[in-house]
Recover the amino acids of this structure.
């Protein structure tokens, strides 16, 4: 599924508002949801370090939850997820090009 199509679906699950019209409570909810799910990802990785095994299915499930909150947060701010990914890629490519390791 394309990220913007996923975003359309995800936005509909929480009620549709005009893009960029999120109130502080909604932004707080989405930001805290994203942080909580990122913590779940970190917890799964911690278990890998502690126990020496990784539950890939559980980690994939948590990564999906991260994507859900991240996408909804983008849209609540009036940003298209695909544009954020394009900007991120450009920023990382610029950093890599400037890195001594890239030479």
């Amino acid at each position: 599924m394309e990220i913007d199509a996923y975003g359309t679906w995800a936005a509909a699950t929480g009620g549709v508002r005009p893009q960029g019209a999120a109130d502080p409570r909604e932004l707080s909810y989405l930001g805290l949801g994203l942080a909580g799910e990122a913590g779940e990802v970190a917890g799964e990785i911690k278990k890998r370090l502690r126990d020496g095994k990784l539950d890939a299915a559980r980690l994939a499930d948590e990564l999906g939850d991260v994507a859900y909150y991240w996408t909804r947060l983008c849209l609540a701010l009036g940003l298209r997820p695909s544009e954020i990914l394009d900007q991120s890629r450009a920023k990382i490519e610029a950093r890599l090009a400037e890195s001594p390791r890239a030479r």
User: Anything to note?
Assistant: The two ends are 36 Å apart (CA to CA).
